[in-house]
Amino acid sequence: MPSPNELRKGTVIRYDGDLCVVIDFQRVSPGKGSSFVRTKIKSVKTGKVFENNFKSSENVEVEEVQYKKMQYLFNDGMLYTFMDNQTYEQISIGKDDIGDDIKYLKEGVEVTIVMHGDIPLTIQLPMKIQYKIVETEPAVKGDTASGNVLKDAVVDNGLRIRVPIFVGEGDDVMIATTDGSYAERVSK
C-alpha cells in the first residue's frame, strides 16, 4: 500500500470505507515528532469535505482510477459538460466536484477527467492554459525601470490575473493553473 507521501491532488483513496478524492495536500515536517501529510479530502458519496492528517508511516488505500482526455464544452451554472473528441461521448461534472479549477475553464480547453468506473470524480487541468488578454491598462513609458512591474488584466474567460507591464490587450498569454500566475506571452 502506498505511503501518504505519494498523495497528490486528484488521488482517489478509500478512507473509513468511503471513496474520497484528495482536493488539497501539504507535507509537514515538524521540528519534533514524525512528518505527516495534511489533506483535504472530499467524500464522493456525500460531497462532504473534511481535513485529515496522515502520518508518513501510515498506509493509504489508493483506488484504481482511469484518466480520460476530454474537451470542455459548456456549463449551466451547476453542471460542467465535457466531450471525448474520439467517441463524442459527453459527461457532466458538478460544480462542487471541480472546485477551484472552475476559474480556469474556457470553451475548448482539453482537461483530464478522473473516472472511477463510470463515475466522473473531478478534473485535472493542464499545467498551463493559453488565454487572450481582453482588458488591461496600456504601458506607460518609464514604468519598466524596475524590470518586474505587474499590472491587472482580464482574460477571455473572465479570470483576473497579474501580467508584466509589456503585455497588452489582444496578446495571448500562458497562465500556470497551479497558482494562476502569468507564465509567458505567446508569440503570434
UniProtKB/TrEMBL annotation:
GO terms for biological process: peptide biosynthetic process. Gene3D superfamilies: 2.30.30.30, Nucleic acid-binding proteins. Pathway: Protein biosynthesis; polypeptide chain elongation. Involved in peptide bond synthesis. Stimulates efficient translation and peptide-bond synthesis on native or reconstituted 70S ribosomes in vitro. Probably functions indirectly by altering the affinity of the ribosome for aminoacyl-tRNA, thus increasing their reactivity as acceptors for peptidyl transferase. CDD domains: S1_EF-P_repeat_1 (cd04470). Residues 129-185 form the Elongation factor P C-terminal domain. This is Elongation factor P. Residues 67-121 form the Translation elongation factor P/YeiP central domain. One of its GO terms (molecular function) is translation elongation factor activity. PROSITE patterns: EFP. Belongs to the elongation factor P family. GO terms for cellular component: cytosol. Coiled coil: none annotated. Keywords: Cytoplasm, Elongation factor, Protein biosynthesis. Its main location: cytoplasm.
